[in-house]
Design goal:
By secondary structure, the chain is α+β, with helices and mostly antiparallel strands. The chain contains 15 helices and 20 strands. The strands form 5 sheets. It has an 8-stranded antiparallel beta sheet with strand order 13-12-9-10-11-14-19-17, sandwiched between helices.
Length: 450
């Protein structure tokens, strides 16, 4: 096993990786910007290296500085967490060129799945069902009109290099298509430096279902069940569940086998998540994330597996020590992303946390790097932490979540805790009856009601 791992990230995920490493007897190196000098992930690591000023592009995205940090500390491997450089194929290649192990998939697979058009082509060849859409990028408005007539309206225009909901626009009829194309191209160019877009059919009331996979260097691939991430705002996940209220074991096993067979043929390595839209009993591929997901804890809660530990093991050449038939699912788990935002306007709320008290008890987990006296910088994502609860069934899980939210105290800044306190009492949420559009409609009704 590795003697020392550099964690190329910050916040709760850096702390999460640090804990897994320490439990395995691995020393850790934290990188940080000047804004994060007093951050918890820096305090808990064995060593730390400042890699630049507050702006992410000058620190957490500063590849030369991160490589130098590896060299001066003797780190044998880099864990990228999620976000930042976690899906940057060039970063993975540079790390490996310096004789350092990148704890993640092969650069070729990161690059393939990072291009939404090529990813869709690849998974279609591998037998994974896809949303009907254009075969490639759309060069002109005239081409778009022709393809749209074949797909049918409504449809969605998507950035080829996109992610996080940016560069995505819906056109409900021909009159809206030109505007959707122009807007999506503009957003894609600004966000990703690439204005290539493609078209897909826009499903009316789908759920967002994703399948967690793990693969080793010997070609073995297993799936660890599904997560339901349908509660979203502006295509950003807010609340995640494992398993999905909409899936039965037969549907899970069927899509799980399709995914593991495909990734086995691809020669994938490490953890990954295949994301689908699910409507009327059918799955439609939307993208693959070649990294650890923010919502990975709900999978850990129902399977009992440590995904970061498994990442470290397979990156070091270890083999998966269990078969698909050994994977079992116990109870139900829900995760709420607690952000430093106004719960109604979602305006960011950086600043000093005056008091910080997390809930506890059976089946309650909080992944956070915050603490009393910590000042949240304005330079990064607003995620403060994740509240994850587990119960023997979904009803018990919801009751435990309601209780845990009432105990959670974060004073001095605004947070999204009140939003979740409201959601956990909504009938549709209690019944598990919601689609990817549910939360947006709910928030709109709340705003209109004042």
């Amino acid at each position: 096993m590795f003697d020392k791992v550099l964690i190329a990230n910050r916040g709760e995920i850096a702390l999460r990786i640090n804990r897994a490493c320490h439990e395995m007897g691995i020393k850790t190196v934290a990188i940080h910007s000047t804004a994060d000098a007093n951050a918890m992930h820096v305090r808990m690591a064995d060593e730390s290296v400042c890699v630049g000023p507050p702006l992410a592009r000058d620190s957490y995205l500063n590849i030369p500085a991160i490589v130098t940090a590896c060299e001066i500390t003797g780190a044998q491997a880099v864990h990228p967490g999620y976000g930042f450089l976690s899906e940057n194929a060039k970063f993975a290649e540079i790390i490996e060129e310096h004789g350092i192990t990148f704890i993640g998939p092969k650069p070729a697979h990161i690059r393939l799945m990072g291009d939404k058009i090529e990813a869709k082509k690849a998974v279609k060849r591998l037998g994974i069902p896809v949303v009907p859409g254009s075969d490639g990028g759309i060069a002109t408005d005239e081409e778009a009109l022709k393809v749209a007539a074949e797909i049918g309206y409504p449809l969605i225009v998507k950035a080829a290099a996109g992610g996080g909901g940016r560069g995505m626009k819906v056109a409900r009829d021909e009159s809206e298509l030109a505007i959707a194309l122009a807007t999506a191209r503009s957003e894609a160019k600004a966000a990703f430096g690439d204005d290539a877009v493609y078209l897909e059919r826009y499903l009316q009331l789908p759920r967002h279902i994703e399948i967690q996979v793990l693969a080793d260097s010997n070609g073995k691939v297993v799936h660890l069940g599904e997560r339901d991430c349908s509660l979203q705002r502006r295509h950003q996940k807010v609340w995640e569940e494992a398993g999905s209220p909409a899936l039965n074991p037969e549907a899970r096993d069927k899509i799980g086998k399709i995914v593991t067979d495909a990734l086995g043929e691809l020669g994938y390595l490490g953890v990954g998540t295949i994301e689908f839209l699910y409507e009327n009993g059918e799955f439609y591929f939307i993208e693959m994330n070649t990294r650890l997901q923010v919502e990975h804890p709900v999978t850990e809660m129902i399977t009992g597996l440590d995904l970061v530990r498994e990442q470290l093991r397979v990156a070091h050449g270890g083999l998966i020590g269990f078969d698909q038939s050994d994977v079992t699912y116990s109870g139900h788990a829900i995760e709420c992303r607690i952000n430093a935002e106004n719960p109604k306007t979602f305006r960011p709320s950086p600043g000093l946390i005056k008091d910080f008290h997390v809930p506890g008890g059976l089946g309650v987990r909080v992944d956070s790097a915050a603490y009393s006296g910590y000042r949240i910088p304005p330079n990064y994502d607003s995620l403060i932490g994740k509240l994850i609860v587990h119960g023997k069934n979904r009803t018990e899980c919801l009751m435990r979540l309601r209780r845990s939210l009432s105990e959670f105290v974060i004073d001095g800044i605004e947070t999204t805790i009140p939003l979740f306190q409201a959601l956990v009492n909504e009938k549709d949420i209690i019944d598990g009856d919601y689609s990817i559009h549910w939360l947006e409609k709910y928030l709109k009704r709340q705003q209109e009601a004042g």
